[in-house]
Design goal:
heterodimer; A: 508 residues; alpha/beta; Rossmann fold; 2 domains; six-stranded mixed β-sheet; B: 502 residues; mainly alpha; ABC transporter involved in vitamin B12 uptake, BtuC; three-stranded mixed β-sheet; two-stranded antiparallel sheet; 18 helices; 7 strands
Chain lengths: 508, 502
């Protein structure tokens, strides 16, 4: 099936998310859409899938114009989508998720589960998937959930499969498995639109690459014609340095020592199971692992946001486990939280106020009768220049800033106290390349200034680029602490739960 | 790569065990504590003090007489039939029967064994089941010992699956011991404990609670919180009484009254669904306002119409149906099989909603909308339509519940008669884990406490416990339930969240 988009334009208020975008996907082709976060890739695909209505433009299938009003139309035209955040019902089983919306009833109105089971097994065999139709989705690993999504699309006879950032949540091994599946699908004649911002994957699987920047197509190419650097500069619009500048670490004394830490998640299940590690002055300990393996709970426990069940966290000998957030911050811990919108900032408040949230109780910025507005404003002006926060002024609400500038506000605030330990959770999630460079430079600069730094990231590239040592977290345990020079394959195995010093050849 | 094993599970056995272990430990200790209280409190009564227990409910509840040789024959038949219920797992030559047949075998077997034995024990007296005396202290010691021993075994062996049913059984035993203690014969008074009567009352109190909980289950499964059930009770009760009274309770008027009571419930739910879906209003506030509206209107009609035209507020009731044969079983018979028609309607509605929600296409879609509407929309399901349908269908059940309050309980309409039980119905829904059968069973617990309150008010002035204390019991249980003390309960994920199309 051939798909063509002609002149698609979509705007939200004054923001033009897609501007006159045209592209052609040939049958049996893997077409990569490359672009930064916020470039308009997802908007375009949501238009194609009927979740958004375009302001203008045309969609053609096999050269015939069609209209797609809602997802039902899209499915009817053979378009299937695997969303970045899976569209699966967590408490339903695989079978129910696959048949949802297109259930066979016999006798009416009862669901014919046996027929559905036969059909699913047939499709699964055809594409060589191994899936238990009775497994509950929330008990399945992310990679398998994604396979259920693909199976769901195929069961609707999808001829074009859209995958929106499919590798963001996968281990390297799961990514390899996905690529194999996509190649099989391609051989069977399915066209694939693969949306990503990861250059390595694009070069590995694309037949054609279309690069989008700020809602516009900036060019189309093939993997044979370009390399990573060229793609990156197409994506960002200027030369980019893909390597983090960093001298070898000169670790000093142990600053933060975590031993045998146990933490529970929101549901009361043990999420962190006996984690121990030391971080020294002037080094970066990166914590790698697939999302949802206890990283969030670990960071929240270290920063006092979540109770510690048992174990010790000592900062230069003082126990921090179970102390209040304020105590921990005042003791010299800086925290760049995982979700800046929720835990990092108050979106409706001004930049100036957000910059002193942690110190408003100190006589420097706050008093009995309220804020010391002058001191707060002066502080804000200084920080804004220092951290290059781009905004109309210091009174702008933080919620109106771009992700990169929001993260700069968080960073600026956290680095404004006396600093012994810097904990950054997913510091560059959702940021553009320019902001990522800035964040990385800040982190390395703080390490060189003598802070003990902990970086938690699910992006393996980031972990390797920044870490002086890398601890891999799996199922709430530290699988191993290895040097960043460890091969990607070995990292992948550790992230998937392998526990073997033979695999890495290194003892912690 | 080959020498490395990978474990793909995210939910590990470790995680699961952590939950269940703590549960069996806590539940077991609770059982031991209950047992200790029973021994110390009830067991300390002087051994000469007894309680008179009534098992008879009405004159029809004597056990049918059998001649001596028939008793032996029935007993032998019972002993032969009973093993069939267990099948080859107990005695290998036995055939493995289908589930329904095994249930029948179990019931027939137990009945045939119990029937002649109770006759030999002299259960009948003067054409009724006779009263008998139990010692308060012996009851305390016996129940306390059972509870403590079972609790100890649960703690020791960590029976995870059995822990919660055993705890509930322990609580029922405790309440029974408490009742026996309350009704003890003292030199001053003799308060016979009408056990069958209390249980019958529990079932009689349950239908409107169960219907309200079913209504809540329907709408919350689709993601709409219906807190207006109280208002639907009031409206349903008022409409059913008005309609039935206007037609003097003749012919089909009672059935018409039921239908119209359900319809007024649907109107309320339609308003709620409209507010929740189209205007994305706060569903709690809309619900409370609907209750206030219903309360105010009912007071107005009560004062301005019913007090003036008293023939519009008659005491009418749906017929009682004594199921042939079954209603003659001692204790169980009158409790389960000699009830108002509304009881059977309620059971039918629970079966209906369960099938609807868990077997049909409509149910699968409704539940998906209550869990993750955005996912439903991507497969072409109209989220709003599903939510309207489930909420309004639930409204019918809530309105029916209002009718159960009047026509189902042989009472006329009185302002304030629903007594905030609409909110208790929501607690029942939670306790029943958003499942129809769960709601049905949970409503019995609350029906039991309500029936207890009614019994204590009959005793009022003659016992040591104030009636108001027992009257508060259903609400106290409600608070315990919604505070999550009864275990981990997970509501539908999108419950109460308005759906915004992108």
């Amino acid at each position: 099936m051939k798909l063509e988009l002609r002149g698609i334009t979509k705007s939200f208020g004054s923001l033009v998310a897609n501007k006159d975008i045209s592209l052609v996907v040939e049958p049996g082709q893997i077409h990569c859409l490359l672009g930064e976060n916020g470039a308009g890739k997802s908007t375009l695909m949501n238009v194609l899938y009927g979740l958004l209505t375009p302001d203008s433009g045309q969609i053609l299938i096999d050269d015939k114009p069609i209209t797609i009003r809602d997802p039902k139309d899209a499915v009817a035209h053979g378009i299937g989508m695997v969303h970045q955040h899976f569209m699966l019902i967590p408490v339903f089983n695989v079978l129910e998720n696959i048949i949802l919306g297109s259930e066979d009833v016999r006798p009416w109105p009862f669901i014919d589960r046996e027929a559905a089971r036969t059909r699913i097994e047939q499709i699964a065999n055809e594409y060589n998937f191994q899936i238990d139709p009775d497994a509950i989705i929330e008990n399945l690993p992310i990679g398998t959930q994604q396979r259920v999504e693909i199976l769901k699309a195929l069961s609707h006879n999808a001829k074009i499969l859209i995958l929106d950032e499919p590798t963001a949540v996968l281990t390297p091994q799961e990514t390899d498995a996905l690529i194999e599946i996509l190649k099989t699908l391609k051989e069977q004649g399915t066209s694939i639109i693969f949306i990503t911002h990861k250059l390595r994957e694009v070069l590995a699987i694309a037949d054609v690459i279309t690069v989008i920047r700020l809602g516009e197509v900036v060019g189309s190419t093939t993997p044979d014609e370009v390399n990573e650097e060229e793609l990156a500069s197409m994506m960002v619009g200027r030369e980019v340095d893909l390597v983090v500048d960093k001298t070898p670490a000169t670790p000093g004394d142990v600053v933060l020592s975590v031993s045998d830490l146990y933490v529970e998640d929101d549901r009361g299940l043990t999420a962190v199971k006996g984690v121990s590690f030391d971080v020294r002055r002037g080094e970066i300990l990166a914590i790698a692992g697939v999302q949802g393996n206890g990283q969030t709970e670990l960071v929240e426990a270290l920063t006092g946001m979540r109770p510690v069940v048992s174990g010790k966290v000592s900062l230069n000998g003082d126990n921090l486990a179970g102390r209040s957030v304020r105590h921990i911050l005042d003791a010299g811990v800086a925290h760049v939280p995982e979700d800046r919108q929720v835990h990092g900032l108050i979106p409706g408040m001004s930049i100036a106020d957000n910059l002193v949230l942690d110190q408003i109780h100190s006589p420097k910025f706050g008093g009995i009768f309220g804020r010391k507005i002058k001191a707060i404003r002066e502080n804000a002006e200084v920080r804004r220049k220092e951290f290059d926060i781009r905004s109309p002024g210091i009174d702008t609400a933080v919620g109106e800033l771009s992700g990169g500038n929001q993260q700069k506000v968080v960073m600026a605030r956290e680095l404004s106290r006396e600093l012994k330990v810097l904990i950054c959770a997913q510091p560059t999630r959702g940021l553009d390349v320019g902001s990522i460079e800035f964040m990385h430079k800040q982190i390395v600069a703080n390490r060189d200034a003598g802070a003990a730094v902990i970086i938690v990231s699910s992006e393996l590239d980031e972990v390797i680029a920044l870490g002086d040592r890398v601890a891999v977290l799996y199922d709430g345990r530290v699988q191993d602490i290895v040097p960043p020079t460890t091969s990607r394959e070995e990292f992948g195995l550790l992230m998937a739960g392998a526990r073997s010093t033979e695999a890495t050849g290194v003892t912690p | 790569m080959s020498n490395v094993t990978t474990t793909p599970e995210i939910v590990t056995i470790d995680n699961l065990r952590t939950i269940t272990r703590t549960r069996s430990l806590g539940y077991g200790i609770s059982l031991i504590v209950l047992g200790a209280i029973e021994v110390l409190w009830f067991g300390s009564t002087p051994s000469s003090i007894h309680t008179q227990i009534q098992l008879a409910y009405n004159s029809a509840t004597s056990v049918p007489e059998l001649s001596s040789w028939l008793r032996v024959l029935v007993l032998v038949l019972g002993v032969l039939v009973l093993p069939l219920a267990f099948g080859p797992s107990v005695f290998s030559p036995l055939p493995r029967l289908p589930r329904a047949a095994r249930i029948v075998a179990a019931i027939v077997g137990v009945l045939f064994v119990a029937w002649p034995i109770s006759l030999w024990l002299g259960i009948n007296q003067d054409g009724q089941i006779r009263d008998f005396l139990v010692s308060v202290s012996v009851t305390g010691y016996l129940f306390g010992a059972i509870s403590a021993v079972v609790g100890a075994i649960v703690v020791w062996r960590r029976f995870d699956r059995l822990a919660s049913p055993l705890l509930y059984a322990g609580i029922v035993l405790f309440i029974l011991a408490f009742l026996i203690w309350v009704a003890r014969i003292t030199p001053i008074d003799n308060l016979p404990l009408p056990l069958t009567g209390i249980l019958w009352g529990a079932i009689q109190w349950s239908p409107f609670l169960a219907l309200g909980a079913l209504a809540g289950t329907m709408s919350e499964r689709s993601g709409v919180v219906n807190i207006a059930i109280e208002g639907q009770f009031i409206a349903g009760a008022l409409v059913s009484t008005l309609v039935a009274s206007a037609m003097n309770g003749t012919g089909i008027s009672l059935w018409l009254a039921l239908l119209l009571a359900g319809s007024i419930g649907m109107v309320f739910s339609w308003v709620l669904a409209l507010m929740a879906n189209r205007y994305r209003a706060n569903q709690i506030i809309v619900g409370i306002l609907l209750v206030s509206f219903a309360t105010a209107v009912s007071q107005f009609i009560s004062d301005a119409v019913l007090d003036v035209h008293q023939n519009l507020n008659q005491t009418l009731t749906l017929p009682t149906w004594n199921v042939p044969v079954l209603s003659r079983i001692p204790v169980v018979g009158p409790v389960l099989f000699a009830q108002n028609i509304i009881v059977y309607i309620t059971i039918g509605m629970a079966v209906f909603t369960n099938v609807l929600l868990f077997r049909t296409r409509w149910g699968l879609r409704t539940r998906s909308v209550g869990e993750k509407p955005i996912a439903s929309e991507t497969v072409g399901i109209n989220v709003f339509r599903m939510r309207y349908a489930a909420t309004i269908l639930g409204g019918f059940l809530a309105g029916l519940g209002g009718a159960a309050l009047t026509l189902g309980k042989d009472t006329q309409f009185a302002f304030g008669m629903s007594n905030n039980f609409g909110y208790v119905a929501l607690a029942i829904m939670i306790f029943g884990r958003w499942r129809p059968y769960g709601a049905l069973v949970a409503s019995l617990l609350f029906g039991f406490t309500a029936s207890l309150g009614a019994q204590v008010s009959i005793w009022s002035g003659q016992t040591h416990i104030p009636g108001a204390f027992i009257d508060a019991l259903p609400y106290a249980v409600t608070i315990l339930v919604v505070s999550g003390l009864v275990g981990r309960i997970r509501p539908p994920a999108a419950d109460g969240l308005p759906f915004v199309r992108r």
